[in-house]
Design brief:
The chain is of the alpha+beta class and 169 residues long. It has helices at residues 12-24, 150-168, and strands spanning 8-10, 28-29, 32-36, 55-60, 63-66, 73-80, 87-95, 101-112, 123-130, 137-138. The longest helix has 19 residues, at 150-168.
Length: 169
């Protein structure tokens, strides 16, 4: 069986934060996501990491939720907008409000072009954390941010067409 190349690890700092949360009742705050180019090459992340090798973009997190089919999975998603780019992504980090690295992911090398290069690419970064107690995680959701897949939009369009047909008949 081949070794898994791309994965997410909760760092030692992240493990300590989650353990402390279960004792103190305070929740772990996933506040920021950062992506990096790995310093120019792919590498295997480790639990003792405290930073990404070379951050190329960062943003606050607006979308995190418990997976409906897997209650111990926290799914964190973030779009990198089309107007940002000119870098490769090989690493992803999740940080708390104190800028401590809680989780780190290896990421398949992906080029994010600049908008003025002749192409625009919005990129969805999706990280899944497997935790023992989701209640210890603070899931912040910005209600102004909506993520919809093409299938979601097609399903909605189909429902609108069905409703429109029913109303006209």
């Amino acid at each position: 069986m081949a070794e898994q190349q791309y994965f997410t690890l909760v760092t030692d700092i992240g493990k300590a934060a989650i353990a402390n949360a279960s004792v103190t009742g305070e929740k772990v705050d996933f506040a920021k996501i950062k992506v990096g180019d790995g310093g120019g090459s792919s590498y295997t992340p480790n639990e003792s990491q405290t930073a990404l090798k070379n951050v190329v973009w960062e943003s606050t997190l607006e979308h995190a939720q418990v997976d409906k089919d897997n209650p111990n999975w926290v799914v964190i998603q973030k779009f990198i907008p089309g107007d940002v780019g000119g870098f490769e992504i090989r690493e992803v980090g999740l940080f708390d409000s104190k800028d401590q690295l809680l989780a780190v992911s290896s990421y398949p090398t992906t080029y994010k072009p600049e908008a003025d290069s002749g192409t625009v690419k919005e990129l969805l970064i999706k990280v899944i954390l497997v935790v023992s107690n989701v209640a210890n995680i603070n899931l912040k959701v910005d209600p102004t941010v909506i993520l919809a897949t093409l299938k979601d939009l097609q399903d909605l369009d189909s429902k609108i067409d069905t409703t429109k047909t029913e109303l006209t008949n």
